[in-house]
Amino acid sequence: MMTDSDMTKTAKTKTSVKQFLGPEPMTGSEGTRGTHWLRREEGDRIWLVLDRQGVSTNTFNEEVFSELDALLDDVEKGHWRTVIFRSAKASGFAAGADLSQFRGVDAGPQLDRRIAEANDVIDRVAALKARTVAVVHGTCVGGGLELALACDRIVARDDTRLGFPEVLVGLHPGLGGTARLTHRIQPIEAMTLMLTGKTVSARKAFKLGIVDAVVPERNVAKAVDEAARGRIERRGAGFGADALNLRPARLAAGRRMRAEADKRAPHEHYPAPYALIELWERHGGSQAEMLEAERRSFAALLPLTATQNLVRAFFLRERLKTNGKGKNEVAHVHVIGAGTMGAEIGAWCALKGMHVTIEDPMTASLSKAVAGAHKLFARKLDGPERLRANDRFVPDVHGAGLRHADLVIEAAPEKTDLKRGIYERIEGAVGEEVIIATNTSSLDLNALSKGLKHPERFVGIHFFNPVSKLDLVEVVRHDGVAEDAFARALRFVGAIGKLPLPVKAAPGFLVNRALMPYLGEALLMIEEGEQPERIDAAAERFGMPVGPVELADQVGLDICLAVAESLAEGLDRPMPEIPEGLRIKVDRGELGRKTGTGLYAWDENGKALKNPVREEPDAAMADRLILPMIDAVAAALDEGVVEDDESADAAMVYGTGFAPFRGGPIEYARSRGFADVASTLEKQARLHGPHHAPSAWWRKT
Amino acid sequence: MLLRQPFAPDEFDQVILGCANQIAGEMNVARVAALRLGCGDEMPAWTVHRNCGSGMQSLDDAFRAVAHGDMDLVLAGGTEALSRAPLILSDEATEWLAEFQQARSAADRVKAMSRFQVGFLSPEIGLKQGLTDPVSGLAMGQTAEELAHRFGISRWQADDYALESHRRLARAQEEGWLANEVEPMFAPDGTIYDHDDGVRPDSTIEALGKLKPVFERYGDVTAGNASQVTDGACWMILASDEAVQRHGLTPIATIRDSEWAALDPRVMGLGPVLCSAPLLERGGFGLDDIDLWELNEAFAAQVLACLQAFADEAFCREVLGLDAPIGGIDRAKLNIDGGAISLGHPVGTSGTRIVLHLVNALRRTGGKRGIATECIGGGQGGAMLVELA
Question: What is the DSSP letter of B358?
């Protein structure tokens, strides 16, 4: 006989109900298999289910379209009353065009033909006599959304994200999306969606009128049935929207959009938004006309260097992502140090599903960390998800979370002895398998690792400020690191949605090493009497998101000084002299944005107060700022700090925002010619000092 | 507390939480808490309600389940968020609202609107309703007035007791005696709450004397000599010997016995006397065997009335059936670090808190055995006998 206590124990089963049930099955995701499409017939309804072979996310290429084209022959011949499109992938409906087919295309009739063929298939869907219903879920962006927009009704599962991110790769929708969206919903809303490249939730899409019903998976079958019977009305644009597609309204709105776009993406670097605005201004009055014009506009954008470089940047991002692929084993992160970086790292980890404990000897720092984390969660999450994120972020006054951690991130002040003491305490509390990571940006990892009993599980995980905006994370390898621990660190970074870049322990790693000459040069120029605003303008006109003076203030002048000193000490190469002005500012506590004064004065909203530029910057000025940065990347490549030039380009684009339309620093140098870069640097060395002397790398490749 | 443990939060057998005022958005708050604490989908949890005794009831449930061998490891505690007590519409207003919501046509709605009265807009405070006993019709404070009257406790005596409660708590806070018991809380905006802030060590008997009675115009119970309305939560871990072995835990105390009693709701404040007496009797203990007492300070007059009852020969003989009075409890052994008057009475929490504090106070003072007891709105009392491990 079982006693009561036996019963309680056996009640804990090995398989939870949740595990037993598994993921919710998708309604209507099966059928007779072609290559990329499944078809299923159901009375007078036919389901066409996209399940692109060999990949986990549906994207469109010529094969997918030609198979659909053949299926449509059948559909047109049969007497179907309803055609239903769905995806069999758990990840979503479709992520749009397979961008690899866009790489290296040339303008010309062949490109025009390819665009026309793809568009003809979508237009054929739109022209079907049968009632068409798209059932979308998960990711439904770009071409995926364009296929859905060609259908009479869109039923969205409640987890759907919809949008047109084309503008981020220098394009606009090219399968009729510009014309169909501006005529399905209020056109200004449609344009805003396409110009920002942002995705919206199913619920927001319902409000906008993009989708006609939002349902959980368990209601999909019923909702499709209702749509098939014509009982779901088109949400549509709402009253008065048509008037906004009239020419005077288009011209007025277009002017405003252009002004807005100009603030964020100058025309000469980013042509796509302007092409999109022009397309709607000129042809928005008629959907048919706009469909035609869109093909031409798309064909013109695709071969542009800026577009090709942005597409390249997309693949660089994918490449970084692959570094972090694989099963993550970290569930609990313990952060030591709740300063700016520690607090932001902890908050980000909790946002992405980690259990986080964060300790600091100062409760005031913990208090700031809690406030910051809750602000981040409020911005990114809603309802129960937000509540759970709040619960996952635990300010840990006594450091009690340490013993439960799978990964410990030390983000303490940059003092070797302090950090050594912390590592000793960590090693006393956690098992040998636990990864100990440091977020140091200026201390030598090889030296730090010496203090550990088990240095093989010690790695650098170097985040950038602000953590929620900069996706790159340098994962730093010292001489004694175990491959397994290093790989686990990479997978952890991948699991929190960041882009891991493996680098070798060397002063400044890659990103700071490249940024320092850029910032240092700017400081020298200020010492020479140059107007800071003009320096920033020179860099921004080149395509940097933030000028070097403003960036130095954002990073913090104290941190700049520490990194500059560590570089000057640790590198064999000459560095720009650390200007006296910088030390004086740091001594005075004028550290930049965080103290309200630095090289600029900062307002309470964290905006730099800048004067108008007195005199337009010239190209030589940009070269003087940018080329030393590119040269530092080359030197890092030469020393094997970073594996290859594509990784370096990726890191600079996603870690510093280096002009993505230029494809990254090395790609830019390549387009300019390595020889030209090297000789310009030599010229600059004569003018501005030996720290401009080009690295040996340029002559080797 | 969970982070300090060598085991994971999903290793409890059950979670039990006392709460007197659950809010609509968090029904069975024990389960909500268990899930939010990471105890896992498969953690059974239930909420217990015994008014002011809820937080001791949860411990008692856990104690009995462990003692009976049903469970090995239980998370038990109390919680209360009185600041979130809802406003309640009057019955008339509720009826009107129901009618308005059922009105389908515009005409019906207009008709319903016409019956709206401005008075509907003054909701009753749910807390006030909750602190009134529906059977006797007396507010809790009025039951304390009744005791003050019956036992001849003066306003001055009550105020003097309250003043001492504040002094004791202030000293305990200053000396850091609560450091192992009070965890700093961080509000979403970063505000730190690291101590109970109702303490007023600089108050004087004159200042307390100036306060107006709250419950009865000619009465003696004021905001100064009654417990404070506050939020709070408290958890304890109860484990069997086997669980202690398995997880390598260090027990701090053992619950030896517990008792509940009930009496006329009008004098609910005497509950502690009725439930403590059997604990002493069963254990064969005299007052000298009890090193410390925590007697929940619902009202100063109520605590003082209990002390008199313990010492009163007639009360002990006729009500408790004892041959001799239990005796006078030394104030030096009673509520040595203040209590609900100075730090607040988060209703469902207090039962857990006084047991935990009793254990910590025994450890600090080198005592061995103590009783935590409380009066319970509606006419009950609960008591728990603990010994240091």
Answer: H
Q: Which CATH architecture has domain B1-84+131-389?
A: 3-Layer(aba) Sandwich (3.40)
Q: Map A398-446 to HEC letters.
A: CCCCHHHCCEEEECCCCCHHHHHHHHHHHHHHCCCCCEEEECCCCCCHH
Residues in chain B within 8 Å Cβ distance of A429: none
**B175 exposed, middle or buried (CB, 10 Å; 0-12, 13-18, 19+)?**
exposed
* Chain B neighbors of A368, CB-CB under 8 A: 190
* Neighboring chain A residues of B26 at a CB cutoff of 8 Å: none
Report, at the CATH architecture level, how domain A511-581+614-700 is classified. Orthogonal Bundle (1.10)
- Asked: is A324-504 a CATH 3.20.20.30 domain? The reply is no
* Confidence band, pLDDT 50/70/90 cuts, at residue B120: low
User: Can you give the residue ranges of every domain in chain A?
Assistant: 32-303, 324-504, 511-581+614-700
* Catalytic position from the list A283, A462, A478, A692: A462
Q: Which residue of B has its CA nearest to A389?
A: B36
pLDDT digits (tens, 9 = 90+) for B268-311: 999 999 999 999 999 999 999 999 999 999 999 999 999 999 99
Q: Find residues 417-446 of chain A whose CB sits inside 8 Å of chain B.
A: none
**Which of B2, B3, B71, B185 is the best mutation test for A, with the most CBs of A within 10 A?**
B3
pLDDT in tens, A3-58: 444 444 444 558 889 888 988 899 999 999 999 999 999 999 999 999 999 999 99
Beta bridge partners of B373: B295, B383
* pLDDT reported for residue A403: 95
Identify which of A12, A368, A387 has the shortest CB distance to residue B190: A368
Instruction: Check residue A555 and give its pLDDT.
Output: 87
Question: How far apart (Å, rounded) are the C-alpha atoms in residues A132 and A232?
Answer: 12
CATH fold of the domain at A32-303: 2-enoyl-CoA Hydratase; Chain A, domain 1 (3.90.226)
Sorted by where each begins, the domain ranges of chain B are 1-84+131-389, 87-125
| Contact: B70, A396; criterion CB under 8 Å | no
Measured between CA atoms, the residue of chain B closest to residue A13 is B42
- Between B93 and A118, name the one with better pLDDT: A118
Nearest to B20 by CA among B352, B385, B383: B352
